[in-house]
Design brief:
The protein is mostly helical. The chain has a domain of about 70 residues. It starts with a helix and ends in a 34-residue tail after the last helix.
Length: about 110
Amino acid sequence: MPPELLAPVTHHCRRINACLARAQHLQTLHGDSMKQWQRLVLCALTDALAHNHLLVGTLAAYLQRQDVDADLLRRYLQSRTPTATSPVRPSSTSTASPAPYPKKRPNRSG
């Protein structure tokens, strides 16, 4: 591993492990309250997921700065579409994706 990545990778891995350990330990603390347990476990797992995303982003940014081919990086990240930070390439055809949510219809009552 490149020396400049050692500190951030170590930090995120430790935080991920701490969040997962907290999620496992919560059963012993809140075994009598299922709602409280659900909330706290999901918060801990969401924290772990956030650090995982930061770790992946850190490594992807490093590889981008090392001039790894954008298509190869997308394959490594298992991403089929260009990321928001990827350079925009001109295209002769539109490849716009549909809106993620349907448009609201105007209120026609009245």
